Amino acid sequence: MENSWRIVSSTRLIQLYGLWLIAALLGTTEVQGATYYVATTGNDSNPGTLAQPFGTFKQAINKLQPGDTLYIRGGTYTEQMNFQDPPKTGIANAWLTIAGYPGEAVTLLRTDPVDNSYGPIKARGNLAYFVFENLILDGTNSSNGTAWNLRDGNHHFILRNLEIKNFKSSGLHIKGSDIHVLNCKIHDNQPPPGIKSRKYGIYFAYGDNVILDGNEIYRNNGGGIHAFPGPIRNAIIRGNRVYDNNSSSESTVPGILVFEDTDYYDGTAIIDGVHLYNNIVYGNGAGGIFVSNGAANVKVWNNTVYGNKGWGVNIQIGLNGMPVNTIVQNNIVFANTSGEIINKGVGSVIDHNVIDDPKFVNATARDFRIQAFSPAMDAGVALDEVRVDIKNVPRPQGVTHDIGAYEGGGSDLKSPNAPRSVSIN
C-alpha cells in the first residue's frame, strides 16, 4: 500500500488531511523511503522483504529511517513495539508508516510483565510524524495500563483504522498536538473487577489542532470522549458514534465532555475553539454532550443526541466559571432522561434544534437517519464548516441544511477511508 502522505498536490493534501500540514510540506519533496516486512514466521537473519520478512519488531524498527514503511503480516504479536530505545522518528517531509498488511488481521496483544506505563506501542517523547494503521491493540491479558499514551512531546501522529479494546484503563490518552485519530474502534476498556475507577475511550487531556474523526467509541466504563482539563485549542470532534459508555454507577461522565479546569495545571488551562459536529451520541449513562467550567467558543453543530441518561446537551456552570460563547445549532436532541438542552453559559446561541420526535427511520435499531416528513428536514441554519454529513453526503441536499448528523436521503454506508476536508480556524 502506498503511503497516503505522498504529495500529489497541495489541493489533494487539503482534501485528505487538512490545512494543518501545509506549512510543513509546501515547497518540499517528500522522501520515498524503504519498505520492510515482519511476520510471525519470519527470521531476523532475513533481509526484511515480503518474501523474507524479519521475525521481530526490534529488528525491523532498528532498520527504520524517516520516510520508511513497515508492514506487519497477519497474526498475534506479544512483543512490544519500542520506538524509544534507540529513538526512531519521522520528519516533516518523511513520515514513518507502521501498518498491518492489507487484508490481514494484526493483533498486538499486551501481556505482563512489561512497563505498566506503556501499552503494546512505546513511542513517547519527542517522537513525531508517524502513521499507524490497520492494527488491533488488545489488552485482554494485561492487568492494568492504558492502551496508548501520546505524551511527553509527541506531535504529528495519525492513528487510522485501529481497534483498541479490553484494556484495564483508558483506550487512548492524548497529551500532544497535531494528533489525528481516524476511523478507529475503541471499546470495552474497563477497570478490573472490584476496582472503582473511570476509564475512557479517548482521554484528551491537552493539545492543539487535534482531530477525532469517524471513530466508534462504546462500552467504556467512563466517558466516550473526555476533553479535560486543557489547554486545548482548535480541536475538531466530528463524525463519531459514541454510545453505551458510562455503564458503571461510579461514573458521572457523559458521552462527550468538554471541561476546562484552571486549577489542574497551575491555573492556566484554557479550552478554546473545540468544534463538535456530525456526531451520534446515544445510550450513555451520564448524559450526551457536556460543556462546562469556562470552556470558550465551543461549537455544537448537527449532532444527534438520543436516549442518554441525564441531559442531552448540558451547558453548565462549574467551580471555576461558566462556558462562554457556546453555539448549539442544528442538533437533534431527543428522549434524554433529564431533558434535552440546558444552558447556564454566557453568550450562548441556541437555535435551530429539534427536541421533539424527529421521526427517525428506526431508533430501536439505532438507525438515526430522518424520514422525509421529519421536522428536521430542511430546517437547519447553513453552516460553512459543516459541508457534509456523518456519511460524507454533501450538505445541503434540499433548501438548506437538515438538522442532526444525517442529511436527509443520505446512505447509512460509508467507506472507512473516505476523506473529509479539514479546516481549523
Automatic annotation (TrEMBL):
Residues 399-425 are annotated as: Disordered. It is found in: Secreted. The keyword Secreted applies. Residues 41-81 form the DUF1565 domain. Residues 153-331 form the Right handed beta helix domain. Its main location: secreted. GO terms for cellular component: extracellular region. Keywords: Secreted, Signal. It comes from the Bacteria. One of its GO terms (molecular function) is carbon-oxygen lyase activity, acting on polysaccharides. This is Right handed beta helix domain-containing protein. It comes from Candidatus Nitrospira nitrosa.
